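Microtubule-associated protein TORTIFOLIA1
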Amino acid sequence: MPSVQIRSSPPPAVTVTDLKQRVIACLNRLSDRDTLSLAAAELDSIALNLSPETFPLFINCLQSTDSSAKSPVRKHCVSLLSVLSRSHGDSLAPHLSKMVSTVLRRLRDPDSSVRAACATASVDMTTSITGTPFSILLGPMIETLIHDCDLNAQIGAAVCLAAAVDAADELDVEQLQKALPKIGKLLKSEGFKAKPELLGVIGSVIGAVGGRNSDKAVLDWLLPNVSEYLSSNDWRARKAAAEAMARVAMAEEELAPLYKKACVGTLESRRFDKVKLVRETMNRTLSLWKQLEGDSKEVSESTSSSKSAHPGLSATSGKISNTSKGNDRNSNAPISSKSFDVEPLDRSNNPKDVEQEAVELKDKRNHSTLGAKRNLFPAKTSKVKENRSNKLNKSQVVQSSDEESPKTDSGSSNSSSQAKNNAEELSLIRNQITQIEKQQSSLLDLFQEFMESSQNGMQSLERRVRGLETSFRVISTDLLVSRTITRNENHKRNERQHFT
């Protein structure tokens, strides 16, 4: 009987020692592919059933794993922090700084899956452990981002910081505002290599601040530096820069309109990116900036968009406008000073010949402009040409019937008809530009609707996959627990049979 009493009530130290040995044994079994799934399920079960007094022991076991361990071991040690945060919540508040240091030790890991697990753990700690200030996680992440020169550490710190800021419900806006200039200076630093991830952090911080206590001086240097990466050789940097500018357009409702004209012009020049994903992001950002109520005019936006889409059309319209300006200038001058590049009247005694030469010279002068327009709008240009020829024939008939009329009257009628024709051509071109812009806007709207529907479908699919993974983990954990209980019962039964 005394021996049975000793077995049934072991001292607490023995229980803690057994737990430590069990955790270390499971961590060692993670290195083997055959026992990986069972060891991971057992560790998850241990993390779910921990008591508050055993939290430090379990976190120490996770932190003691060094970089020489295999990748599955390093990854699952970080994933267990997520399991702890989701299952125990604010009970882990006294141990949050130690958990953050465990994540920071893994940021230099060369395996991207380990760094992704660090980002997930940062999100879970931010959303689940709300009893402590966010600065406990924010401060060390910012310090690592600014001072660590290792590329993997820079990438990991940037990804974790951006994910935590996006997931946090209550943020210290003042601390983020103080950190934004320090983070922004890294864009010009040659020692900082993870520029796409850094741009993601900048966008997350701007979105988190949300225009509260905004400082115009910060945006004065931040937006030009960010917009420089719209033309970067790295497509990830171009995409991240466009996303950061979209965050500015959405968050800074008061200050963003002041930069609308410059940002719209820059995005217009980069909207036809060769990478599809970047091109879609550019167009979404451009639409956000155009929706702002700023000081830029809609006429300049439509003109710049038409020029970027049709450079030949802009050149043609420029030539036509110059021609019309010249005609207007000549019509305002005195009659005696009008000149159509025709020889003096004393060289020809017939007024009809002089007028015919003037008409031919005008046609030659506008030949290049009409040729360019004919390539763009062949049907309507031919109609304009027919109307012009009919009007010229009519003017010649009138002049032949009235040869005694002065030369100045014929010259003024030709100049007015030429100005009228130019005005008609300009109106035709404007109508074509308007139609093209309407077609482009309708296509962009259809494309955006398609992208939104596809994104919603992907999100629903991801939620279903996560639900299946969660159910699979629960089932595997239950099976493991049932097997363990069965083994223990068989072991006890065998012992009893052996004693009997």
